[in-house]
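Cystathionine gamma-synthase: C-alpha cells wanted.
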Amino acid sequence: MSDRKNRPLSPATRLAQALHHVEERTGALTPTIQLSATYARGADYAPRQPYIYRRDSNETTEHAEAIIADLEGAAATLLFASGMSAAGAVLEALPSGAHVVAPGVMYHGVLQQMQKHQTTGRLAITHYTAGDLDAMKAAIRPGQTALIWVETPNNPDWTVTDIAAAAAIAHEAGARLITDCTATPPCCTRALELGADISFHSATKYLNGHSDVTAGALSVRRAGALWDAIADVRKLQGTVLHSFDAWLLIRGMRTLTLRVERQTENALAIARHFEGDPRLEAVLYPGLASHPGHDIARRQTDGMFGGMLSIIVKGGERAAIDTALACRLFYPATSLGGVESLIEHRKTVSGPGFDVHPALLRLSVGIEHAPDLIDDLEQALDAAT
Ligand SMILES: *Cc1c(COP(=O)(O)O)cnc(C)c1O
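Answer:
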C-alpha cells in the first residue's frame, strides 16, 4: 500500500498533464496564451509579476520550459525561436578564443555556425569522426577545450555515441559536454542523467511533433557562468520562443511519448522489411541489431530508438532522387519528427561541402499505419530502380 502511495509519477504522466496544470482563476486545464508584449507596473512602479516585456520571457514560454526541464531532469530550460538560435547562443556564450571539439558530420546548420566562428577567429574548432571516442579524445587541446559537441544518433547515418563515456572524456579534460539528441527526444534519451552538462534539442522536431512550430531547447544539469551567459545572449538578441509557439509546443508535447512509441514501431517495421533488399545498399537504423551502435542505443534509449532511419539506394544519386519523388505518402520535404512521414535526399538539402552519401535518403517516419508506409516505399523503389 505505502509503496504505491510513494511511487513517483512517471515523466510520461506529468507530460500528458502538462505538469497537472489548472488555471487558478477559471479552472481551465488548457493554459491561457500570454500574448502581451508589455506589462503594466504596479502602484509602486514595481513589476507586478517577474515580467516586464515579452522579449525577456512570459508565462506561456516558461510553462513549456518547466515541462521540458521536468522531462530532462534539468535544473533549468530555456526555449528559443529555433534550434539554430539555441545552438547559436551556446557558441556565442563561449569566451572568445575557446576551443570546441565537434563531429565532422553533424546537423549542417550548426556545423555552418561553427565554421563561421572559426573563420572570424572567435572560436577554434577541431572535428572528430562522429561516434569515435578515441578521435574525440585526440581532438582535445588540454587546458583550452571548453566544449565537446555530440550529436547522437548522428545525422544522417545515425551513428551512435556513448553519452556517458563522452561525458567522462569531457570532464577529465575540464570541458563541458553538450548533446544534440534531437532524433531521440527526452522520452527516449535523458542526456543530462547520462552526464551531459547541456542538452540541446530542436523542439521543432519530436518535442512539438506537428511540423507547425520552430523552437529550440537548452537544458542544463547545473546552472553556472556558462548558463548565465547563454541566458544573456537570448535576452540581448531577443530570440526567446514566442508565447503562441510555446502554447503549440505544450499542446504537442502532451502526446510525445505516444507519438514516439508509434514512430519507433513504424521505423522498426520499415527497417526490418527493407534490410537486405536487393534494391538497397544499406538500411541505417540503430534499432536494427546489425547497426554498429545498436547496443549503446538500446541502453541510451531504453529501446525507444525513434523514427529516424536512412536508406542508401543502389543506382546512385539519380535513383535516390527518383525514389523520393515517386513516393505518394512520404512527403519529399526536409525536417523530421512530425506525425507525417517525410523522405529527404540529404545531399541536395545539406548542399555542397558536406560529406553525405549521394544516394542516401533520410526517412522521418510518422504515426501512419506501417503497412501503408511500406507499400509506398515498395512502389517508389520499383518505379525508380
Ligand atoms: C533541425 C535540427 C537542428 C536545428 O533546429 P531548427 O529548429 O531547425 O533551427 C539542429 N540539430 C538537429 C539534429 C536537427 O535535426
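The chain has a mean pLDDT of 96. The first helix runs from residue 2 to 6.

Cheers.
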